[in-house]
């Protein structure tokens, strides 16, 4: 792992645990195993680390490439999408978003934070249109269905973070299977 990657990983970890305001550059440097001067030399400010993380975290890039995993098998593809998206959201991203949400810097970061979900939604809509051209599904409001899928994944992850299995009542795979069945009925 490069020095920059260590700093970004430490920042994401601390943001998820403590929030943006409560996380200091000194703590970030300590968790990353670098000198605070190294942190400033690489990024300048804590805000720049967050911006870099949002733009360049490899997990996020993999999510944008999710469409390349689609096989043309509707149920399998939707299950793959939902499992991958839930894992992505569970891997600190949701908690980081929640820690930034109430901060002044949220408005400045909002365009970056919204870009990835917009790209994911576009990939899903394009997938649905491709499946329509192949006569695999019927015409529907694909944008709404994509949003429903993404929001249900986000809701599942947030409920799991806050309440665990006791509130949700079903495991991830069962949730995905039931959601995919409902989506399949719309298509």
UniProtKB/TrEMBL annotation:
<protein>
    <submittedName>
        <fullName>TetR/AcrR family transcriptional regulator</fullName>
    </submittedName>
</protein>
<dbReference type="InterPro" id="IPR001647">
    <property type="entry name" value="HTH_TetR"/>
</dbReference>
<keyword id="KW-0238">DNA-binding</keyword>
<feature type="DNA-binding region" description="H-T-H motif">
    <location>
        <begin position="24"/>
        <end position="43"/>
    </location>
</feature>
<dbReference type="InterPro" id="IPR009057">
    <property type="entry name" value="Homeodomain-like_sf"/>
</dbReference>
<dbReference type="Pfam" id="PF00440">
    <property type="entry name" value="TetR_N"/>
</dbReference>
<dbReference type="GO" id="GO:0000976">
    <property type="term" value="F:transcription cis-regulatory region binding"/>
</dbReference>
<feature type="domain" description="HTH tetR-type">
    <location>
        <begin position="1"/>
        <end position="61"/>
    </location>
</feature>
<dbReference type="InterPro" id="IPR050109">
    <property type="entry name" value="HTH-type_TetR-like_transc_reg"/>
</dbReference>
<dbReference type="GO" id="GO:0003700">
    <property type="term" value="F:DNA-binding transcription factor activity"/>
</dbReference>
